[in-house]
Predict the structure.
Amino acid sequence: MPSWPKERRLLGTRVTRLEAPLKVAGRAKYAYDQNLPGMLQTAVLGSPHGRARITRLDLEAARRMPGVKAVWTGGGPGRELRHHGEMIAAIAAETLDQARDAVRKIDIAYEVLPAVVTEEDSMAPNAPQLVREGNVNVRNNEGRGDVPQGFAAAKAVFEGTFRCRVVTHCCLEPHGAVAQWDGDRITVWATTQGIHDVKDGIANVFKVSPANIEVICEHMGGGFGSKFGLEHEAVVAASLARDAGRPVKLMLERENEQTTAGCRPSAVATIKIAADESGRLTAFDATTYGTGGIGGGAGFGLPFMYRVPAFGRKHSDVRINAGSARAMRAPGHPESSFLMESAMEGLAVKLGLDPLDLRRRNLPADSLWQKQLTLGAERIGWPERLPTGSQTGRLRVGYGCAVTGWWGGGHDSNARVAIHNDGQVEVWCGTQDLGTGTRTALAVVAAETFGLQPHDVLIHVGRASYPPSGSSGGSSTIGGVAPAVRTVSETVLGQLFERLAPALDAAPADLEVAPGVVRVKGKPDQSLSWKDACARLGAQGLSAEGAKDKSLAGGGCNGAQFAKVEVDVETGIVRVRKMVALQDCGLIVNLLTAESQVYGGVVLGIGYALYEERVLDRDSGRMLNPNLEFYKLAGPGDMPEIEVIMQDLPERQVIGLGEPPTIPTASAIAGAVHNALGVLVPSLPLTPANVLAALGEV
Amino acid sequence: MDGSEPGDGQGFSRRDFLRGAATGAVVSSLVGQASAADPPAPSASAPIVSGAVTAQLMVNGHRLQVVVEPRTTLLDALRDGKAPDGKPIDLTGAKRVCDRGACGSCTVLFDGKPVYACSVLALDALGHAITTVEGLGDVDRLHPVQEAFVQHDALMCGFCTPGFVVAAAGLLKANPHPSPEEIRRGLGGNLCRCGTYSRILEAVAEAARTGKGA
């Protein structure tokens, strides 16, 4: 029965990434970096309108342009385009400039149609209906308990409306792929969170046997939830490659990436929340809506985190003429958190309670959250916090907090492990490293099991021909792949002990590994060095493939974050001065990269809190900031001091970590701004305009 | 880069002129190809070249023959360019992310100073020393800034990393002992989406502290 070791030599320590030297030296090859012999480059024509119908499409002049080898189009006259950037045509040519030149020669005319750009316009009775089933999908009335009674029994009731804007993933490596056919075989270099899903998709779309498909993703430049399954870009690249008889690279240019490659939906909630004398929540009611663009879906959970005995909820998913939402790092959750925690802030004022106390009173008394809130309050300096609204100067300091939770259970995964007769250990797993450190985590697990150093283990990930492993979503990767490698490594180690037992004059069950040696338990002098032990394996060495033992993965992790901010009430500028992030993820595999995940979640949350917003033209639906200068990402100069505190709880097994640390960040910052100002800024991002509006200054 | 602009009003576009400042280097470096074999008569300040020409760039201490058009950016020449014999240049360390000077992922050193390679024309690089991330160090002999990035885990997906590494190396070259605020400002032209900033700032501070940054 596989298990994690009781005494950990490497697990939970800080191990630098295996691929870090390749990445810092510019040698890591992403899909975008492939330069195959004879490869063509692709340029894309995207819709310039939020909503329009194609009335003329003539590709002949474009086809005759120098260097053009293949042309793809998704449909001509009569086709309705329903968001800015929607792909109309793609042209593969010898060089990217030639492809761009040819795109400019496409003869196309549009009938511009009235675009539906805001959620409110889309819900209006006379709005143009964008799809047959209508713009609005009311998902009614989840609920529990006696809501009217809950409000009647309350000491304090707070009501407010809060709004999260649409933000985009901004993967630095855009969506796209390189495709190469060789007869009926195809190889796809994809930037993807799921190599096996890409393989499956290619098999379905192009009617190719899975045996004839390879998907490669050695490194990928960010996905954040937007790169699942077979992407449209990869389909087009493979089509062009088939038509041209040449390898084709299609990577979206930035404008198309920002307009079409996914976003986090908006979320608007009118919330009524109540608590009794003791600060316990008694009732919660919310009417909510949000848009996931033309795709519509904008799901998020409410109430969030805190237990409410009675609640009601009415939600509408609303379609507009904008690019569709895709999963984005903890989909729905930062929205839920901001909406809920904002209401908690308002309620705390009504109750005359410290907002930290209000949170404590509505979380289980014996939960890890209580410990995290105690420690976090100490680290941020909560005792120095002034009462909300008590400050009068130009620069006001505020403190805020919020909690987070996530399941993070592992997906299914296989792995193959081999020991060669020179002592080299090799691991294959058909997962993909999104930049989370998956490759290194596998090395830590294998090295721990065999008594080796992580950098001595050869790890192979990122090919769909390797043993199957799930897509990387829902923070499910580490809980899939680490148990798989542990399980199979223990199997192979058992085989090794069988082979060595006679030489060591002991039963296989009496053998163990220590750093660099195989020895008899309790008899350290009865040992073989790892090299000598492996030299006895012969040419075939040892290997095994298998599935993970599910008992090695856990689920359910907790966290809390605290923010200290400074707000300038004349300019409306919010500066985050310090963040404290406390996070558990069960048994930590690699502390160094686990911490990096938390830093990353916090930084994404700072952008969500203060800067990021997809801005659409009110009339046409064109995205006005489909670039990286007017779409504002947090930069190095925006960084506060960030203190990351990881809780190592090995008895809870391995749990995923990528998503939970970005959930509470914006909420903690917004709470701190509330504390500084004495008014709630009801809408993210907390830009100067929104802050000054909340202060009644504009 | 401070090459002087040719006179206005000559009807030149980015597509078909070479800047006057590079004239000497251009004339001596261009190898006739396609229409460049028969270039229009040069004006006093700027020869006009259009179509593909072979240019000789100085990259990472080596002379590099690369076929470019006047409109080809330095970034595209490094990543997608080909030698006259068709062999890819394949210097893909610098990344194309925004392609308009907003994110810093394509940063290279131009005579030792960090520039956005997406915003420099390849032909404007003639006669200048270009250093890409590949030229700073290789995996088995990393530049001290690269080594500090590895040790501090100052990278995740790694797509912004080459740009940050080069920007940091350029910063430490100009200012070997920057204050934390100077590091923030020095790297202010680069963006990361995974959120590695805290560790990048630590890594650069350490490279500076050990005095090995430059």
